[in-house]
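Data card: per-record layout.
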Amino acid sequence: MSILPPVMLQSPKSHPSFLEKMVCSSSKLARIHLIKDKDAIDHYLAMNIKGLSKQEAAAYRNSYKKNICIDMLRQGYHKSFSELFTLIQKWNALREAAGPGSAIWQQKSLEEQPDKLDQLHHFLTRAEAAQRAEYYEDVYINQLNLAYCFNNPEDKWLRNYFYEQCFNTAQLIKIDGGKKEAEAHANMGLVNEEQGQFMKAAEHYEAFYQLTVGRIWKDETSHTYNSLACEHLWRIYTLLADKMLENKEHQQAIKTLIKAFEMAKEGGDKKMEGEAAYCLGLAYHSAGEEQTAILNLNTYIEISTALCDMVGLGRAYQAIAKVLVSQGKVTEAIKYLEEFVKVAKSAYLSRSLVDACVFLGDIYNEKGNYNKACEYFSQAFEAANTLTNLPLVDETKVYYGIAKAHNMMVAVNSYTETADPVSVEYLLAWKENRSGMCTDPFTVELPKEASVLETL
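The structure for this 456-residue chain is written out next.
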């Protein structure tokens, strides 16, 4: 009987060859094979797992930044990709320049913040699409939205970058009568002002003003663009004048502050107009033109009174008093300062009350009226105690102590100059207890058995 050949068992169709290669004794060798057969894995996943393409699989491996960049390039937004890449490089350069320990060094890089990358991807690509179609107004709107997205302090450099892009785009918009260009000038003025470039800021604000004259454009708060331009010019002219006054350029500062006053008046804001009159008054005072200074400060008083602005009214009284004191008109100055005290008390302005009382105390102290000086320094000390300002409390305490010492020295000097037994007896008695100093030694009854010699 013949023996049949053994039956060859047919094994089921195996998985692709790369799976067989994965079976090995060394895990390190298996990892090498996996890396070498990455394309085979991607092919297998694409063929056997529904809905997962090679690109989708790669999306899980790539960083968020890389996926954003790849998406831009696939959609043909090469300019947006280049701009995003440049901004990331700029952030890294700023960080390196600041060095370890700086605020920017502690922040996450731009490429590590998905929310910001999403905003950049969304608006940059929309702006590029609009630019291709020459819809420059849409380009401007998308760039402006990006500036608004990065308004946090740590992102100001990005905001400023997109404001500059808005400014360049606004020059190409010819269908809105210059509204976008006006907005762009205002924003660039803000950027320059924050950077301390006041002259450049003034140029942008002046252009903003010229574009808004006679227009009824309004912002979201219903303020007209022209009134906003006036406010910006008032502020920047005042800042420029402050620099001029620091450099002793009094006449140039006065000319600049006159322009600021005119802008404030045109803007229609009475409080702003009052502030401009106040600054102008101080400038005239620093230039030695006292009468003109008082006229402008009186204008500030009138405006503050009309607005029931007690803080402004107190500042005006104090400023006029300083001008009058510099002219030697102390009696008139005291009247204004007493009004200052009344205003401060009625409005519960503790800090203003301290200033007014210290000023009055100084005047009376210099005049030799030490009782009055003590009275006002005492009020200043009491008002300072209501504030959480320990240095101010200590300062007023010293003023009060000096005035008390001066007041006591009047009596001490009087008794010393008299040098009779009664005066000497009284001085010695006062030295024992320091309880007070009577102005008339004859009103004090001395002990019958006490004598000057015995005390000595």
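Known properties of this structure: The longest helix spans residues 390-418. The two ends are 157 Å apart (CA to CA).

See the next section for split statistics.
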